[in-house]
Amino acid sequence: MSAQTDRNTKGILFNIQKYSVHDGPGIRTILFLKGCSLRCRWCSNPESQSAAPELAFNRDKCLGEEHCQRCHHVCRNQALGVAQDGKMVWNPDDCRQCHACAEACPNKALIVYGYETTVDQALRRVEEDEAFYSRSGGGVTLSGGEPLVQAEFAMALLREAKRRRIHTCIETCGMVPWNVLREAAQYLDHVLYDVKLADSEKHRMATGAGNEVILENLRRLRREFPDLPITVRTPVIPGINDTPEDIRAIAEIVREVGGMDYELLGYHRMGTPKYVYLGRSYELTEPNLDEGRLEELRALARKVLESGKEAPRGLCA
Ligand SMILES: C[S@@+](CC[C@H](N)C(=O)[O-])C[C@H]1O[C@@H](n2cnc3c(N)ncnc32)[C@H](O)[C@@H]1O
Ligand code: SF4
Ligand code: SF4
Ligand code: SF4
């Protein structure tokens, strides 16, 4: 693909986060691409899951009918009404996603998650922080959603980032066709790869899909790109994958595949308000995992990985 074509390739982002230190080496800018192949019940980015831009309503910011009503006047689908307290009520079932109301809203109570952008526009935002990257070994991380769902856009972003000598990383759930992951790997300097559950049926219940493709892709990625740094990550979700058996089983897969780092991520509920804004409900009610329990699981994972290391030569039979 020519550089010109890549620079003009369009895709849909829903956020750009600067100065991140948790999503790949050094200081990074994260580009969040819309669309996902899974539906994890705990997902902190519910606004990422649908591929198209979507309306969200934060009623706390609504000025109420007495002062405003602008959205009410522009909606042609009776998807907006007035509640007893004078604030608007949004009915997602009647909404046609035309987004006229979001344009009219003066207080950003109605907003749209997702906007179209070109590769060049996105990477210019990344380049604003070039000085930080070169000193810290950072760069750009593609996240989402599942960034490889917008395969053409993701590929053009990665190719063009490499032309601009920007370090590239991806956060992926691995639930993508192998040929897409293989192509992306050619332009990647680091991969953060989620393995959420070892048991496929439990994976299906928790995320909407089994894990066969994810595990097979991980094995092929390691085999066909032996020099590409891969960090496998597991978000430890209460009631979903927080038992020693769950973590041991995933750590054993990481050990068997070999040559990868492994990290456990603490659970958080920071995405909860966004479910409300989208007219959805957040299902998980389990209490948070305490830090001590998480540390125990981390120690268990380390033990499993270390048990796979070669014994010193002198001790071999
Ligand atoms: C939002 S995801 C985007 C990348 C990709 N879709 C994935 O799942 O790996 C980025 C990271 O956030 C983690 N994550 C999502 N929801 C979380 C939550 N409620 N608590 C902790 N980590 C979470 C995911 O496991 C993943 O490692
Ligand atoms: S997006 Fe369009 S249809 Fe939906 S509430 Fe707003 S104006 Fe009405
Ligand atoms: S336009 Fe915005 S602030 Fe005004 S009534 Fe509608 S939601 Fe509320
Ligand atoms: S794969 Fe990632 S973005 Fe998609 S639903 Fe799961 S946590 Fe959210």
Automatic annotation (TrEMBL):
Keyword Cell membrane: no
Residue ranges occupied by any Radical SAM core domain in the UniProt entry: 22-309
Domain 4Fe-4S ferredoxin-type: from-to ranges: 53-85, 86-115
Lineage: Bacteria, Pseudomonadati, Thermodesulfobacteriota, Syntrophobacteria, Syntrophobacterales
Protein family (similarity comment): Belongs to the organic radical-activating enzymes family.
Gene source species: Desulfacinum infernum DSM 9756
Pfam families linked: Fer4_12, Radical_SAM
Keywords: 4Fe-4S, Iron, Iron-sulfur, Lyase, Metal-binding, Oxidoreductase, Pyruvate, S-adenosyl-L-methionine
Name of the protein this chain belongs to: Pyruvate formate lyase activating enzyme
Single GO term (MF): 4 iron, 4 sulfur cluster binding
Cofactor(s) the protein needs: [4Fe-4S] cluster
Subunit description: Monomer.
Matches recorded under CDD domains: Radical_SAM
